[in-house]
Amino acid sequence: MLPKARVVAGEEGDAAGMPDHLVVFTPSGKRGRFPDGISLLQVARTLGVDIDSVCGGRGICGRCQVEPSFGEFAKFATKSDPASLSDLAEGERKFDERRGLQQGRRLSCHMTLQGDVVIDVPASSQVHKQIIVKSAEDRKIEIDPAIRLHYVTVQEPDMHNPTGDFERLAMALEQQWGLSDLECDLRILQRLQKELRDGNWSVTVAVHREHRITAIWPGFHSEAYGIAVDVGSTTIALHLCDLSTGAVVASSGMMNPQIRFGEDLMSRVSYVMMNPGGEVTLTEAVRAGINELIETVCKDADIDPMDILNAVFVGNPIMHHLLLGIDPTELGGAPFALASNTGLTLWATEIDLKSNPDGRVYFLPCIAGHVGADTTAVILSEAPHRQEKITLIVDVGTNAELVLGNNERLLAASSPTGPAFEGAQIACGQRAAAGAIERVRIDRQTKQARYKVIGSDLWSDEDGFEDAIKEFGVTGTCGSGIIEALAEMYLAGILSTDGVIDGSLAGETPYVIPVDRTFAYVMREDETNPIRVYQTDVRAIQLAKAALHAGARLLMDRFGVHTVDQVLLTGAFGSHIDTKYAMILGMIPDCPLDEVKAVGNAAGIGARIALLNKGAREEAEEVIRRVEKVETAVEPDFQQYFVDAMALPHKTDRYPHLSRTISLPEPKKSVLSQEEAGGRPRRRRRRLSGG
Questions:
Q1: What is the pLDDT of residues 202-234, one digit of tens each?
Q2: Cβ contact 130:140 at 8 Å
Q3: Residue ranges per structural domain of the chain
Q4: Disulfide check for 487: which of 192, 435, 577, 581 has CB 3.0–4.6 Å away?
C-alpha cells in the first residue's frame, strides 16, 4: 500500500496535515505532495503519470528512466534541487554498467524522494509513447499494443497453502500489476510449473488485452515483437515491429506464391472451382510465403520467432479468405458474399504461423465482397473520417479500390482496372525490376524520348548511361513508365485526344513507325529488344484508366459533389506514379495538383497502426460499419462515365485545375478511325484482383 499522498491542482496550498514534498511531472503537469522515502515510480503510479516498466520497479528493464530538472520554477511555485533526490542507488549503478544510463537520467524505481522536485518523463519512457508514421499527413500513433509483458514474483507453495501455481501467479499479477480475472492458455499451463521453478519463482508473462496470459518465460524477459502483413494478390509485404517502441526492426516482401495459379484473383477463384481441394493448395502456398518472410525478418533482426507475440493481417477479400482457409468461391460471382466482415482474433497456430504458437493474430474487417481489409487499413492510415476535406483515396491495382468522403460520410467502391497499370497486357511491359523504364520525357520538337530505368540514376541521354545499365540493360517498361510515356506522347502531339497514335508523323520523325494497320512510338531502338508503345498498349491503358475514373465519378455522384478537395494515391503501384502524369491521363478527377499526393503503402501503414494500438482496431470496426458500398457493376451510369473517360484526359471535363498548371494541347482529330486503331471501347468484364 502506498504512503498517504495528496494530489494538488497546482498551488502549493496549506501545508498543515499534508505530506512533505511537492512532486511535479512534465510534460503532463501532474503533481502531488508525498512523504520522504517513496520511490518516484510509486509517485508516478499514484498520480497516473505515464511511465513504462516491465520489471515492476526492480531496476532490470530500464524503461522507467526519467530526467530530474533543477532550478527555480515560478510556474510551479517551487525550487527543485539535487538534494531532493536520493543518491545513485546500487541497482542504478549496475544497470548503468550493464546497459548504460543516458546522461542526466535516473531510474525512477530506484530514486527516492527527499524534497520538492520537478521530473521530466521523456517520450521514450512513456507507456503510451507516440511514433510518427509518414503518410499523406504525418500521423502520430500512440503505442498501446494488445500484448504487454509483465515481470512478477510469485509466492512459493507450501504444505499449509494448497493453492495452485496458476492461482498464485494470477494473485501476484493482481497485487503487483493490478490485473484481474486472468485466464490461461492450456499450453501455458502445461509449462507453468517448470518455468516458475526455473525462474526461482520470478517469471515474465505476456498478457493479451489485460485478460489472458499467452506466453511465459523464467526470470526477466523484455523482448516482444509483432508483425504487420499486407497480403496482396501480387505481393506480400511484412514488417516486424518492436511492440514496446513501435520501431520497425526489419521488413521484407515477396511475390505472392499464388501467382503461379493465376495473376488475377478471378483466375485463382476459377482454379479453386475447377480443382477439388484447390483452396487448400492456395492457402498452403500463401501461408508458406508468409512463414518464409517471418524467417527472413527474424534472421535480419536476430530475434527468436518465439518472441513474435502478435500479428495483424490485411488483404483483399479473396486473399483474406484464402489465408483463413475459407473457400473463396462465393466471392467469384454475384452477390459476392463474404464469409465474415468483422474483425477476427485467432491463435497463431490456427493459420500455421511459425511464430510463438500462443501468439494472437488479428484480421482487420473487410468492407464488402470487392472491398477488403486492405481498404479498411487504408482508411485507418489516412483517416478521411477525421477530416473536413472531401478526400478521394485510390488504391491503384489490378482491381482498384476507392474511398471517398470526410468526417460526415464515407463511400467505397472497387473498379475493374485490370493488370495494364502493372505492365501486363503491354507489349513491352514488365513488372518493376532492374532495367524497366520508369520515367519518360519526350522532346516536343524532335519527338525523341529520354528515360530512366530502375537500377540507375542517370537519364538515357546522360554520359555513362549505357555503362551504368550494362549488367541488366533496358528490358521493358513498368507501370509508372507506361503512364508517363502515354502522357508525354499526348503532350508532344503524338497521341490524339481519343488516344490514337498520329500516323502522319511517320514521315516527319523516325520515332513514329507503321505497324500493320496502326502505328507505334519508338522509345528505344535496339536490334534485339526494341522498346515501343503500340496502339494496343494505348487502348489497354485507356480501358484501365477509364474504369478507374468512372468508379471515382460514381462515388462523387453518390456523395453529391462535382469536385474533390484532395486525392491520395496508394498501393505498391500507386505510390510510384507521378501524380501530374496520372492527372494528364485522366486516371483521377481534376483537382489542384498540390492536393494530389502519393502516400505509399497505406494498407501496410494501417496494419502497423492496428498492431501497435489496440484501440485502432475498435476504431476501424466502428468506422467501416458506416461506410456505404457502391457496386459499380450494377450502376447504370457507369457505361457513360466509362466512355467519356476514354479520352485524354477526359471527353467532357476540361480539367481547369490541371490546365492552369500544364499547357494541354488543343484537341486533335484522329488520323485513324476507331476501327483501324483497335476497335470501339466496350464495357470491360469485371475482374477480381487487388494490390
A1: 999 999 998 999 999 999 999 999 999 999 887
A2: yes
A3: 6-125, 147-218, 227-335, 377-419+540-677, 421-534
A4: 581
